[in-house]
Design goal:
Blueprint: H1 3-32, H2 37-57, H3 60-77, H4 87-106, H5 115-125, H6 134-142, H7 157-183, H8 187-210, E1 212-214, H9 216-219, H10 222-233, E2 237-242, E3 247-249, H11 250-271, H12 275-280, E4 287-296, E5 299-306, H13 313-322, H14 328-333, H15 336-340, H16 351-356, H17 364-373, E6 377-383, E7 387-395, E8 400-408, E9 411-416, E10 420-426, E11 431-434, E12 437-442, E13 445-451, H18 452-456, E14 476-483, E15 486-492, E16 494-502, E17 516-521, E18 527-531, H19 533-543
Parallel strand pairs: 2-4, 9-18, 13-15
Antiparallel strand pairs: 1-3, 4-5, 5-7, 6-7, 8-9, 8-16, 10-14, 11-12, 12-13, 14-15, 17-18
GO molecular function: ATP binding; phosphorelay sensor kinase activity
Organism: Hymenobacter actinosclerus
Pfam families: CheW, H-kinase_dim, HATPase_c, Hpt
Length: 545
């Protein structure tokens, strides 16, 4: 059994045992008051849900018994029958049998034969008397007798959130204790601190693991979405789901739901061609849409890929110049990936541009903001006439983040690793100045470089001063960040180290400062600001000479 199948079976068992307990309670209420409409409605609903879940999992016996029971309770609800006489032991026995079947599934045992029960339920639906012989009556007395609790429990997400917040506080204290143990020469303290650190680490990963769910729980909702949108657009689309068993934090999955829905709808409405257009282009009439997930180091990559018309890069380049987002000479030098990044700019695609760039930019700024809020990235790759792929790069957890710590003006700052491309130390001869901007050549790409100190101290509409190589003295420690397919070098005073941090929201009025994404507490007890790379990149683009 695959991990995904095991996960689905466990979810089925948890819900099925919950349904069974509720059924037992409601049928007892019905016995006390045969006219209890609420109990009848609940019994009908529970049977219907159990039937659907069991059939989806391939548990035919459970599905068939629940279906027949649903029919009988439907007749009782509609006043076509009365809960009395021989019907009572049959329905009680039916619920007990469902309990047996559910437990057999949970224990991996062979399911008991239910044909006699099904025959009696069928007689009840036809208004006939069931066949209750003495042997069956004895069996029904022996069946509500074994009481069991599910191995699984449902936990409200808010409780897990609270637990994760407490875990974050514990991690901060762990780092402080470890720092103290290094400063104080005490073998006993060192031993206790090491043990505390191991326990805290294990607890951290256990809590994070409890919040993980398979992306299939979201992906499974898209076949219907694709069908509805394709029908409305008059297109023939085949959806393929891949990597449904990849695990990710439930809160992250919740946050990207609307973004993913937008990308899928957009791919069908604007990315994929009509049947006539595809045939004219020599393509198969049916468009292909792939929704996939895969793990990559500490990240999860979720992709929406179509084999449609692709994005016209030159149209995007022209519109970026018209909007004043980039100069014409600079635009001519941009790579295709850098040009497509303009699609994520707020309000880039208006009605006029929808036709020219296949509508692919509409609303992408909103999608980008959702991904940015997670500390993730959104990338787009496209080939004209062949298709487009949107890639969401997501952290597996949003509570604890990997970060690079550095020093500036004798203060510690943190940059999320999600947006950290690399760190380099360069001498002044490695730089050049073009158009007042400091550049360095890295991996066959000219990367703009700016002093983080200068960037953080800009006032109002004040632009960045034109760069001069003469201001560079000695070795320069530079952090290369990457946002929206744009690389930017930030000159800092000193690299410190890489470590996991717990990011806390900044209190008012500091929460209005865009350049900072939050705050964390270091092991030394020092407060450390966490820089917001998207905001820094946007500030540089707006203020550069």
């Amino acid at each position: 059994m695959s991990n995904r199948e095991q996960e689905y079976r466990e979810l089925f068992m948890a819900e099925a045992l919950e349904y069974y307990d509720a059924m037992s309670r409601h049928i007892s209420e019905l016995e006390r008051n045969p006219a209890d409409e609420e109990a009848l409605r609940e019994l009908f609903r529970l049977m219907h849900n159990l039937k659907s879940n069991a059939r989806a999992m391939g548990y035919t016996s459970i599905g068939e018994v629940a279906h027949q029971m649903e029919t009988v309770f439907g007749q009782l609800r509609d006043g076509q029958a009365t809960f009395a006489g021989s019907m009572v032991p049959v329905l009680f026995g039916g619920i007990d049998t469902l309990g047996e079947l559910i437990r057999a599934v949970g224990e991996g045992q062979e399911l008991p034969d239910v044909q006699r029960l099904l025959d009696n339920l069928d007689r009840l639906t036809r208004g006939e008397e069931p066949n209750l012989d003495d042997e069956q009556a004895d069996d029904e007395e022996d069946v509500s007798r074994k009481l069991e609790l599910s191995d699984l429990v449902y936990i409200q997400v808010r409780k897990l959130d609270h637990l994760m917040n407490l875990m974050g506080e514990l991690i901060i204290d762990r780092d402080r204790i470890l720092t103290l143990s290094r400063e104080i020469d005490s073998p006993a303290l060192t031993t206790a601190a090491a043990h505390f650190s191991r326990i805290a680490d294990e607890l951290q990963y256990s809590v994070m693991d409890a919040r993980l769910v398979g992306v299939g729980s979201l992906f499974s909702k898209f076949p219907r979405v694709v069908r509805d949108v394709a029908t409305a657009e008059g297109k023939d689309v085949e959806l393929t789901l891949q990597g449904e068993d990849i695990q990710i934090d439930r809160n992250i999955l919740q946050i990207i739901t609307d973004a993913l829905l937008h990308l899928v709808r957009n791919a069908i409405a604007h990315g994929l061609e009509t049947v006539a257009e595809r045939e004219a282009a020599g393509k198969p009439a049916q468009g292909q849409l792939i929704l996939s997930a895969q793990a990559e180091r500490d990240d999860v990559l979720v992709q929406v890929k179509d084999d449609g018309r692709g994005i016209n890069v030159e149209s995007v380049r022209r519109k970026a110049v018209e909007r004043g987002l980039v100069t014409r000479p600079a635009a001519a030098q941009l790579s295709d990936a850098a040009v497509r990044a303009f699609l994520f700019e707020p309000g880039f695609s208006m009605a006029k541009e929808v036709t020219e760039i296949s509508g692919r930019g509409v609303g992408l700024d909103v999608v980008k903001l959702a991904i940015d809020s997670l500390g993730g990235q959104l990338r787009v790759d496209s080939v004209m006439g062949e298709g487009t792929t949107f890639t969401l790069v997501l952290p597996t957890s949003i509570a604890v983040k990997g970060a690079l710590l550095f020093e500036l003006d004798e203060r510690s700052y943190a940059l999320p690793l999600m947006h950290t491309d690399s760190v380099v130390s360069l001498m002044p001869g490695s730089f050049s100045v073009v158009g007042g901007v400091l550049l360095t050549r890295l991996q066959d790409e000219n990367v703009p470089v700016v002093s983080l100190r200068e960037l953080l101290h800009l006032d109002g509409d004040q632009p960045l001063a034109p760069a001069r190589k003469s201001t560079l003295q000695g070795r320069q420690d530079i952090i290369i960040v990457n946002y929206n397919n744009r690389r930017l070098g930030l000159i800092v005073d000193r690299f410190l180290r890489q470590q996991d941090i717990v990011v806390k929201a900044m209190s008012k009025p500091l929460d209005t400062i865009d350049l900072f994404g939050g705050v964390t507490l270091l092991g030394s007890g020092q407060v450390c600001l966490v820089l917001d790379v998207p905001a820094l990149t946007r500030l540089f683009l707006a203020k550069r000479p």
